[in-house]
Amino acid sequence: xxxxxxxVINDLxxxxxxxxxxxxxxxxxxxxxxxxxxxxEPLLSVPGLFPHRMRAPGCCGTPMADTYLSSxxxxxxxxxxxxxxxxxxxxxxxxxxxxxxDHVRRLHDNLAYLQEPPFHVMLDLPHKSDxxxxxxxxxxxRRLLRGLGEHFGVAVDDDTVRGAIATHNEHxxxxxxxxxxxGNPVPPLSGADFHRVLVASxxxxxxxxxxxxxxxxxxxxxxxxxxxxxxxxMVAGSTxxxxxxxxxxxxxxAVVVADRFCFGGMPGLSPLACDQDPVxxxxxxxxxxxxxxxxxxxxxxxxxxxxxxxxxxxxxGVVLATMKxxxxxxxxxxxxxxxxxxxGVPVLRVERETAGGAEGQLRTRVQAFLETLGR
Length: 375
Fold this sequence. Notes:
The protein is α/β, with parallel strands linked by helices. The chain contains 14 helices and eight strands. Helix 12 (299-312) crosses helix 13.
C-alpha cells in the first residue's frame, strides 16, 4: 500500500526535534517530555507548553546506557537514556515521569544523576482505580501543575486546564476519523501509516498538527479503494513507537486495522471528560481507561476489550508483540493469548526490541501465521 502521508509527519517520526517542534519552540513554547500514557497530555498543553513523547528512533545500540542500566532491562528506557547521554533531547525543556514500572524508575534515577533536566517530576501512581486511588493520583497531578506553573510561569488554574482538555479533544476527534477509516473493507491507509500519524501527534503541538491531519483526511477520502488486504490483523502488546515494525508485518500483504498498545489507537483516542474538577477527572480517566497490565484486578476487563475490538474490526488474527524483558507484559500476554484463543481468535506471540532488528525472523513468523489463517 502506497504511503500518502504529508512529509511533515515522516519528518517527526524520523526526527523528534523536527520542523513543527522547532517552529513551536522558536515561537516561545516549551517542550515537556513524557514517557507514559498515564500522563494526561492536557496538563502539558496549557498555553506556553506542549507535550513531547520521549522516543529514540534509529537507536541501534545502548553501550553508554548499559553502563548504568542492566542489559536485561526493557530496551525502551535504555534507548531513551542512550539518546539523552548523546544530546538527543537538548530540545526538551522538562521531563515528566510516572512510576509505571521499575525500569522507567531506573531511567528517571539515572537521568537525574547523569544529566539532570532543568525540570523533572516523578509522579507516584496507584495500582487501582477506585475513588481513593483517583484522589491520590489527582493530588499527584496537582503537584505536577504547581511545579509547571512555578518553573515556567504558565497559568495552571482550572479554567486553563479545561481549555487544554477541549483542545485535546478536538485533536482526538481528528484522529478518530482517521482511525475509523481503518475499519473499511479496504482501509485507505496502512496500519504503519496510521501509527506514524500517532507518533507524530505525540511529538508536536496539537494546534500545529490539526491542519496536517485535516489535509491527510481529505486526501484519503478522495483516494479510490485498492485491492482487499490478504488479512486483517490487530497488533497488541507493550509500547511500540517504531512504525517500521508494523511495516514489516504488512509487507506480506496484511493490513493492521486495529491496535492495542501504549500510544496506539485503542483506547488512547477516547475523548477526555471535563468534570467540575478537571484534574480529578483526568486522574480518574487515566486510571480507568489506559488498560495497562500494571493495574490490578482488571485482567478480564482488558481481555474483553481486545476481543470486542477484534469483532468490531473483523480481525482475522492478533499479533501479540511484547517488549523483551518487560515483566508486566510478560505475564499479561500469556493471559491475553489464552482469552483470545478461548474466543476463537488466532494468535501469534512475538518478542521485540524498541527499534529494528530481527526483521527477517518477524517476516518469516508472520508469513507462517498468515498461512495458518488460510490467507
